[in-house]
Amino acid sequence: MSGPFSDLTDTIFADKSVLSESYQPEEILERDEEIEAFSHALQDVLFGREPENIFLYGKAGLGKTAVTKYMMEELESEVEVREAADDLHVHEINCNGKTLFMVVRRLVNDLLSPDASPFPKRGLGTGDAFDELYAQLDRLGGTHLIVFDEIDHLDDVDTLLYELPRARSNGHITDSLVGIIGISNNYTFRQSLSAKVKDTLMETEISFSPYDAGELRTILRDRADRAFVDGACDDSAIAKAAALSAQDMGNARQAIDLLRVGAEVAEREGDEVVDDAHIEDARTLVQRGRLRNKIRDQTEHAQYILETIAKLEERGDVPARSKEIQEGYERVADAYGATPLTTLKSIQDHLSDLHMLGFLVRHERNKGLSGGQYYEYELDLDPSIVLETREDIVQTAD
Ligand SMILES: Nc1ncnc2c1ncn2[C@@H]1O[C@H](COP(=O)(O)OP(=O)(O)O)[C@@H](O)[C@H]1O
Ligand SMILES: [Mg+2]
Q1: Which CATH architecture has domain 28-207?
Q2: Where does this protein hold ATP (predicted)?
């Protein structure tokens, strides 16, 4: 009997999870220098000394999180065989979307004994959470490494970086040692710290540079060998994915995404081998996906403005002046039952932001004899992406 699933067989993937975001590679490739610097910075842990604070910098997709996870696992097993080392506790926390209170509370809850009741969500402040954190660190003793991933997203990072590194010298803890590992996608993070933190935070900095095409090929080949059935992925497909990602900031996450999506395209088309054409298609799909996320991140009114310009564009009425955009925008906002922004200035501010973010092209026009200048706008992306994304958002909001 043949049913809707009967002709689906897995001819391409041997283990697709190897290409997923959550997969942690057993082996880190092409990051020998960073790993060596990291080992040096961590060596105090092996001798029972107070750990150095370590900060990793580099753009997204350059292996900061993966290298840190790998180093923590390696360090945990090394500590087992080292006489001089104290017990090691590693805590990893992603700061994205969290307040300082949430972060410290999470740490406290990780440290509490399993039968203790969790630190309350309400009623107590960040200072109380720090007090409890210190009490728990000393209760457990040993060495604690706390990884703050995406630390640049934290609202009150100055307090954190002022408090924790001084916990011992200020007498808040006596029976435990603490080291901080901060990871930031943003090179200007350090500059944004207050002077008193910057001057006293003793740290080792490790910076991650973009991968070149050759390095990305090595990383991708290794993944492909684990993810695909033998022979199911052309070398030229890997070279293509590596070259495209190398051009675009050397991002390994993007390179792996291209390979996964390319393989999905091949599978859908019933092809048994992933080739460059599939990667080319994947690139378009991945770019569309990224644009959608970027649109979703905009405020409600900025999205109405984008939708308005997309509609003008479909009618051939672009480039358009801010006044024309405002009129269309008011109808769009009304249609969604929202109260439109009333001033032309607020529309112009949004237009200028959207231009800066790369959504819009802006043309400067001269008013002729009367002098003066004004702007006209059009989308810098396919209007159908905007309209489809808006439709998705409206549908999922119901
Ligand atoms: N040197 C590497 N070797 C193997 N895989 C890597 C390497 N660098 C990055 N990756 C993979 O690329 C993706 C992005 O890496 P990640 O560590 O999350 O980047 P970051 O934290 O810098 O944004 C992950 O899937 C990771 O496993
Ligand atoms: Mg990361």
Answers
A1: 3-Layer(aba) Sandwich (3.40)
A2: 211, 223
Q: Report CA torsion sign: 347, 352, 358, 363.
A: positive
Position 1 scores a pLDDT of 59
Kindly state the DSSP code that residue 315 receives in the 8-state scheme.
Answer: T
Buried b (16+ CB within 10 A) or exposed e, 83-119: eebbebbbbbbbbeebebbbbbbbbbeebbeeeeeeb
- Which of ligand 1's atoms lies nearest the C-alpha of 31? 1
Q: Is the CB of 251 under 6 A from ligand 1?
A: no
Residue of 19, 24, 71, 219 best suited for mutating to test ligand 1, as the one with most atoms within 8 Å of CB = 219
Ligand-binding site membership of 315 (annotated): no
Between the CA atoms of 33, 35, 37 and 39, what dihedral angle is there, to the nearest 10 degrees? Answer: -150
Is there an atom of ligand 1 within 6 Å of 31 CB? yes
CB of residue 30 inside a 6 A radius of ligand 1: yes
Cβ atoms 57, 207 nearer than 8 A: yes
> What backbone torsions phi and psi does residue 305 show, to the nearest 5 degrees?
-65, -45
CATH number of 212-295: 1.10.8.60
Q: What is the pLDDT of residue 155?
A: 84
Q: Which atom of ligand 1 is nearest to the CA of 28?
A: 3
- b/e 167-180 (16+ beta carbons within 10 angstroms → b): bbeeebbeebbbbb
Distance 350 CA to ligand 2 centre (A): 30
Residue 223 near ligand 1, beta carbon < 6 Å: no
Query: What pLDDT is attached to residue 190?
Result: 86
Q: Where in the chain is the domain with CATH 3.40.50.300?
A: 28-207
Cα 71 to middle of ligand 1, angstroms: 13
Establish whether 321 is an annotated binding residue: no
**How many angstroms does the Cα of residue 254 sit away from the middle of ligand 1?**
10
62 lines ligand 1 (CB under 6 A): yes
CATH domain 298-397 topology: Arc Repressor Mutant, subunit A (1.10.10)
Please state the three-class secondary structure of 83-130 as a single string.
Answer: CCCCCEEEEEEECCCCCHHHHHHHHHHHHCCCCCCCCCCCCCCHHHHH
pLDDT lower than 70: segments of the chain: 1, 7-9, 398
Nearest ligand (C-alpha, residue 30): 1
Angstrom distance (rounded) from CA 324 to CA 313: 12
